[in-house]
Write a structure and sequence with these properties.
The chain is mainly alpha-helical and 430 residues long. It has 19 helices and 4 strands.
């Protein structure tokens, strides 16, 4: 029993791994190419074109539903309209270059094409509705788009970098920071898919649900609060299809699961207001159902309704000794290293931070620990760190995702640090 379950989980992982490795590579490349200045420059104003540009820019970017929030809020501070911000919030987490490649590998070309197209249309719809019903003036603050915006260094003046420097930053982000953001979700997604495949009978949803709309509704109710990235949702959707869920309902999960989670909804409501978050959730729910029915229509009329059978056959093709298997083992090693970094004892990090403080002559500076709620990934921690570092007198910042807190050292006003955290869109835990 246990052996068969492990085989199911391992088989799912090795089917995904080569595509994930390729996706991480492209994620790193996009990280270097897409600077915050460039994105903010195209999202200003309340025009419909800014909404379209936001969706177009958001589709390929590899950001999860929590990581996209600090990025979107920074764009908002850079004078992006609320419509463009919502368009970016909706389109970005649903898909990315990494998940598109993984979707093609696991679910085939139809899913791989339909996911980014749906995210693009949904982002435009959300942005247009927001501009129609929300008439707040643009934020008069362009500081977020000013200054250094180089992904390689912090030099504010125009300059160039060698190819090696750019490749190093690409690899550091794609195989390091970005992988760290999705590794726990990815492992959980593969394990959940294995559990579904092993324990549920093949006709479970057909027997006990048997209604496309009800299946889609279940996917929405379960997907909205769930924290799952676009890539980690793929094996779960595939496992659901093998148990009788329609392709359209599985697509609804692929859309809603990555697009939202409880933390994201709370942050958007706190920063942009209840009206915006209502539009955000309504557009995602309604358009995901429309997309689900459209996907089922395509499957029924152009694939004879048997795409699920084809996918199951594709899923259980075993890798032989090949380049794909080698890449799978390379990705496995990267994943293990990522998990080690995530669960590295905070005491080791603090020892390193204290050493730096002493050598810099900062031993006498005050140190305060500030609890922060709402952080869920490295992007959140980086955003909080950056905003705290801007506070006058701050010398060093150590943000811990595990403890949901920031250790701040220097000669600073604690209330100003707390205000910086709130300004970043997060809640200070008193």
């Amino acid at each position: 029993m246990i052996i068969e379950l492990i085989k199911e989980i391992v088989n799912t992982f090795f089917q995904m791994a080569p595509y994930l490795l390729l996706g991480l590579t492209f994620a790193g490349i996009l990280h270097v190419l897409f600077t915050k200045k460039m994105v903010a420059r195209h999202l200003g104003g309340n025009s419909f074109s800014s909404v379209i540009k936001a969706a177009l820019l958001g589709v390929p970017l590899p950001l999860c539903s929590c990581g996209v929030v600090p990025t979107a809020l920074s764009l908002r501070k850079s004078n992006a309209s609320e419509g463009a911000t919502v368009s970016f919030l909706i389109s970005t987490p649903q898909t990315g270059v990494d998940s598109i490649i993984a979707t093609y590998g696991m679910l085939g070309p139809l899913f791989a094409i339909f996911r980014p197209v749906t995210a693009f249309i949904m982002g435009i719809a959300g942005g247009a509705v927001t501009n129609l019903f929300v008439k707040n003036p643009p934020v008069q603050n362009g500081s977020e788009a000013e200054g250094a915006d180089c992904k390689v260094c912090t030099v504010p003046t125009p300059h160039r970098h060698t190819l090696f420097q750019r490749v190093w930053v690409m690899a550091k982000y794609g195989y390091g920071e970005f992988l760290d953001d999705i590794s726990k979700q990815l492992v959980a997604g593969v394990i959940i898919s294995g559990l579904i495949s092993y324990f549920l009978p093949d006709d479970f949803f057909t027997r006990y649900v048997g209604n496309d709309f009800l299946e889609m509704l279940i996917m929405i109710i379960g997907g909205i609060p769930l924290y799952v990235c676009a890539t980690a949702s793929i094996p779960i959707a595939l496992a659901l299809m093998t148990k009788g869920v329609s392709a359209g309902a599985a697509f609804v999960f692929l859309t809603v699961g990555p697009a939202t989670n409880a933390a994201t909804v709370t942050l958007i409501a706190n920063v942009m207001g209840r009206k915006v978050v209502t539009i955000y959730l309504a557009v995602i729910s309604v358009f995901s159902i429309i997309a689900g029915y459209s996907f089922n229509f395509i499957v029924d009329h152009f694939y004879g309704g048997n795409i699920g059978i084809d996918l199951m056959a594709h899923h259980h093709v075993h890798n032989e000794a090949s380049a794909g298997l080698i890449f799978s083992y390379i990705f496995l090693a990267m994943l293990i290293l990522s998990l080690f970094r995530i669960y590295l004892p905070d005491t080791w990090k603090r020892m390193f931070s204290k050493h730096k403080a002493v050598t810099a002559g900062e031993a006498a500076a005050q140190t305060s620990t500030i609890g922060i709620d709402g952080m869920t990934c490295n992007k959140c921690a980086q955003h909080v760190t950056g905003d705290i570092q801007k506070v006058k007198g701050v010398q060093s910042v150590d943000v811990s995702l595990k403890k949901k807190a920031a250790v701040v050292t220097g000669d600073f006003n604690v209330e100003e640090v707390k205000e910086a955290v709130r300004g970043a869109g997060y809640k200070v835990r008193e």
